[in-house]
Amino acid sequence: MKKIVFLWAVAMCLLAACTKGNQNDTPEEVSEVPTPRYCCGVPVDSFRIDTLQVRQGETLGGLMTRAGATSRQVAAVSCLSKEDFDVRSLRVGKTYWVLYPLANADSAGVDVSVPRYLFYFPSIQETYVFHLSDSLTVSHEIKPVRTEKKQTQAVIESSLWNALTEQSLPIELALELSEIYAWTIDFFGLQKGDSIRVYYDEQFVDSVRIGIGRIYAANFYHGRQWLEAFYYEPPDSLKAQYDPSVSGYFDGNGKSLRKAFLKAPLNYKRISSHFTYARKHPIYKTVRPHTGVDYAAPMGTPVVAIGDGVVQFKAYKGGGGNTIKIKHNSTYTTAYLHLSGYAKGLAVGQRVKQGQVIGYVGSTGSSTGPHLDFRVWKNGTPVNPLKLESPPATPIPDGLKADFQRIVGVYRPFISSEKE
User: Fold this and answer.
1) Residue 149 and residue 176: Cα distance in Å, rounded?
2) Which band of pLDDT confidence, cut at 50, 70 and 90, is reported for residue 296?
3) What is the pTM of this model?
4) Distance (Å, rounded) from C-alpha 238 to C-alpha 388?
């Protein structure tokens, strides 16, 4: 019996020893070693990084000198070809990184004040890396743009710009929508309660939004009506058969949103004087006709042609000051008065395109302040520019109507409204 007890005790001791040994063999839990962060193939976490910005008038060589580069490194930069990097492309305020060796036990004998890499970021999408360790080399990386389709809407309280910014929506939407609806909506006449629905592409680099792509469809509630816009272009197999004007924005019935004339020839702050045959002139103090519209705007604001045409007159003309006249067709002529100057190269007889800058707001002639006096004649008779009716451009041709309606059927659900 004693022998059995003895053997049992020995067995328990051996079991305990084995258990203890197994516990010791199990490695203690340790925190993971962080994976180095790479940028353009460089383990940037292994370096000290200074983040700087390009200064006014700074050259690449001067930039590197400021970063502590050696004279050899700076000299190598001056030998770069345009294919490697165009040194004239440096832009003031753009960010760049300078990477230095870390000061640690492994840096004995290493000058940690001399840069090993320089990263230049012309944009969020683009990076140039200057490898400075041995012979100078330059690598160039362009990150891919990721596109997501988005559906959004906004109610206007004061302006389209404010409505979008208040919802952190891309401000580019306001710019694009003002182009799409330039011929149908006066964006300075928007009212509280107007609204917009948009279906579009939003663009990202990594997780950062960089802008928008195509607007496929929009629906603008203005003047107590919904105004649809659908982007359409013919299939590639049919493009050669149709005029390029077939590509663009159309309403749901296939009528082009592009009219012969823009609603206004500039971005203005307010209308300071309307079309009338009985206005007391602010300088001469006499009642006389004012057959135009005065748009108050800052000095130098660009003025554009409201439609395609030929420059008929460009000169100083009495009380109108620097004046441009454009003949658009056999029916319509427009004039732009009190300009501070003309667009470079503009000449009488030159053909201009709709939206082309022709001059700049000024106060020449009989004027009390910077503004544009804009005038329109129809068959030689002055007409009110604010009541100008403009015929639409080419509608969807019969041969493309079925395909266009297919596109409308795809996009309309994204912009439809119960108010319609």
Assistant:
1) 16
2) confident
3) 0.63
4) 35
